[in-house]
């Protein structure tokens, strides 16, 4: 399998690249900073320097050419303002979708965020920092656009909404459901779930709601992913 990972120098993506490379998959690690190339290559990926805030769709398409799947794990990062939440967490995710469609990439996994429903329909949650609200709005808008494209047959899609991220060692067990109480999950286990979604024979069709929330839990990762991707029985 050939996988292009956007934001390959990020903390979840770094773990994901190592998992995929260790399994024998070919990984293209997309980074905007040339100084990160050596780190990405050390993780086992072929680095592609692409700034998703300024690149054209053709430039991104060149980076994902030949891939079986793409993963959006990029983020504006701590300290960035409201504007960059939109240009990275929304617009860059959509740009990656443009490139994936242009190149016929058949699977897209979006790493989103728990809590995006709090800003649905323009709601503004009380007591939440405005920059974080902007982040949630950007993630929700990216989800909506990718879901629309998946419904039109552009690609298979999985949207993963992890809870609060920790650096605790992964347990290999998680809770993966359509809706979960707020909680935490290790970055190791997030990466493991993304890898399992990439390996799955098929993702859920759009009408089955391919949005999954992820927290720490007791179900082995592969079993949780298999169960979550099993379509609901016909009524």
TrEMBL record:
Species: Quadrisphaera setariae
Domain NAD(P)-binding: 7-201
Protein name: SDR family oxidoreductase
Domain of life: Bacteria
InterPro entries according to UniProt: NAD(P)-bd_dom (IPR016040), NAD(P)-bd_dom_sf (IPR036291)
Pfam families: NAD_binding_10
């Amino acid at each position: 399998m050939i996988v292009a990972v956007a934001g390959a120098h990020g903390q979840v993506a770094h773990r994901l690249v190592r998992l995929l490379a260790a399994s024998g998959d070919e990984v293209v690690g997309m980074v905007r900073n040339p100084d990160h190339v050596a780190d990405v290559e050390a993780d086992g990926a072929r680095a592609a320097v692409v700034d998703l805030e300024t690149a054209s769709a053709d430039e991104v398409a060149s980076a994902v050419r030949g891939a079986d799947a793409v993963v959006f794990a990029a983020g504006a990062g701590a300290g960035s303002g409201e504007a960059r939440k939109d240009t990275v967490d929304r617009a860059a995710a959509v740009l990656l979708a443009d490139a994936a469609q242009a190149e016929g990439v058949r699977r897209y996994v979006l790493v989103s965020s728990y809590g995006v429903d709090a800003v649905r329909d323009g709601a503004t949650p009380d007591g939440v920092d405005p920059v974080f609200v902007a982040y949630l709005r950007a993630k929700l808008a990216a989800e909506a656009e990718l879901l629309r494209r998946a419904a039109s047959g552009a690609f298979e899609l999985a949207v993963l909404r992890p809870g609060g991220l920790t650096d605790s060692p992964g347990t290999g067990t998680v809770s993966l459901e359509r809706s979960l109480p707020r909680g935490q999950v290790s970055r190791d286990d997030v990466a493991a779930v993304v890898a399992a979604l990439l390996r799955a024979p098929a993702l859920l069709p759009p009408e089955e709601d391919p949005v999954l929330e992820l927290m720490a839990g007791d179900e082995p990762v592969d079993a949780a992913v298999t169960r979550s991707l099993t379509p609901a029985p016909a009524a």
